[in-house]
Specification:
By secondary structure, this protein is mostly helical. Helix content is about 70%, strand content about 0%. The longest helix is centred in the C-terminal third of the chain and has 37 residues.
């Protein structure tokens, strides 16, 4: 019988704080829920962002394409065309959920070293970011030679390149998107990782940290004092609140009641969105999303047994979200160069072209994940293990 099987978290009274927290992390890792619902939410959000950026094709040689005159399958995909950019905020919320779920107890108990935590995050995010940054930096001059200006994201300065190289372009405040523009959200999230680790290591898993982060995000949203990192922090810690609720005694002992509470909160926020309107995408909708997303993630993270038979394809879909998110703009830039060189006209109003764009992004994302992203993660993490003097429990 394993240690996890014959001891409960409540036995932590007889153990020191570090050992109890490590056990809690083990129990979370051994939980029956495979978080398949979260994987599906991640995939849907990735597709929402791709559809939102479909109008980039209309900007080939003409920046007026931002008006989005082409929207095939709009009757079906109108939420993505209208609100797809909010998929980024849900990504932040999911990241907070997963990072809280995996690391919060260990960080608060100081059983995971700072180097290990950040090396794991680095191995997950940086290799593909660096590759796509270099690809875009190499391709934009070719587009500029044909069109006279950069494609979509106009800032291709050396200062922006260096900030992008360090994933730091959104740390001090909002900056124009540059090079592989979608990486802006990851830059903000990296800043939040640092704050998350330092705060939990210093203050533990205090509820006031979550409340303060959400309040700071709301202040930024409503005063228009835009700080991508602070807004990201609000969604990140809100996702962490959902993870903490899922791990709570109440959710374990009274799961039906916990699910009902989550459903009622999400429903109330959705009704508020319908009553007050969906037109304010800069303030009202992001605020309501802060109320809707955490309970929805809590519900998505339940152990939905009917999904078990689809476990492999669902995990595959979840795994390719980061790759599709980062490669879709370089892919569009390649198409833009070919279009300007050949003079062909893209059938942007045709549903088949939209579907071909999404399918290509998914297939390339899968190839990139299998052939580059996952091997680089393994390589970097193996180097970390080889350099570590002793295994660190996390």
């Amino acid at each position: 019988m394993s240690r996890v099987e014959h001891l409960s978290v409540n036995d932590g009274a007889a153990l020191d704080r570090r050992e109890a927290a490590a056990m809690h992390s083990e129990l979370r890792a051994a939980a029956p829920s495979k978080l398949l619902g979260l994987e599906l939410v991640r995939f849907v959000c990735a597709m929402a962002v791709l559809v939102w950026h479909y109008h980039h094709f209309a900007m080939i040689g003409d920046a007026s394409g931002m008006a989005r005159p082409h929207a095939p399958l709009e009757d079906l995909l109108w939420p993505f065309y209208s609100f797809g950019l909010l998929g980024v905020q849900i990504f932040w919320c999911i990241s907070g959920f997963i990072v809280y779920w995996k690391y919060a107890d260990a960080i608060a108990a100081r059983t995971v070293a700072p180097g290990r935590f950040f090396w794991l995050r680095f191995s997950r995010l940086y290799p593909l970011h660096l590759a796509t940054l270099l690809i875009v930096a190499a391709l934009q001059p070719a587009y500029v030679a044909l069109a006279g200006e950069p494609f979509v994201f106009k800032d291709v300065s050396w200062s922006s390149f260096l900030l992008q190289l360090g994933l730091a372009d959104q740390w001090s405040g909002p900056r124009p998107m540059s090079f592989n523009g979608p990486i802006w959200s990851v830059s903000a999230e990296v800043f939040v990782y640092v704050g998350f680790f330092l705060l939990l290591r210093t203050f533990g898993k205090a509820c006031w940290l979550i409340v303060t982060a959400v309040a700071a995000a709301l202040l930024c949203i409503w005063t228009r004092a835009t700080s991508p990192a602070l807004i990201c922090g609000g969604y990140f810690f809100a996702g962490g609140a959902a993870a903490e609720f899922l791990a709570s005694e109440r959710a374990r002992c009274r799961p039906v009641e916990a699910r009902l509470i989550a459903a009622l909160i999400a429903a109330a926020a959705a009704v508020a969105a319908m009553v007050f309107g969906l037109d304010d995408i800069e303030r009202r909708l992001p605020t309501l999303l802060l109320a809707i997303a955490p309970p929805l993630l809590f519900l998505a993270a339940q152990d939905w047994r009917p999904l078990d038979r689809w476990q492999r394809p669902i995990h595959a879909a979840g795994n390719l979200t980061y790759s599709t998110y980062l490669i879709h703009f370089p892919m569009q830039l390649c198409v833009a160069i070919v279009v300007l060189q050949s003079g062909i006209a893209l059938p942007l109003s045709e549903p088949w072209f939209l579907l071909a764009y999404l399918a290509t992004a998914i297939v390339l994302g899968r190839i990139v994940f299998i052939r580059f992203e996952a091997p680089m993660q393994r390589l970097i993490r193996a180097a970390m293990i080889n350099r570590s003097p002793a295994p660190v429990k996390a």
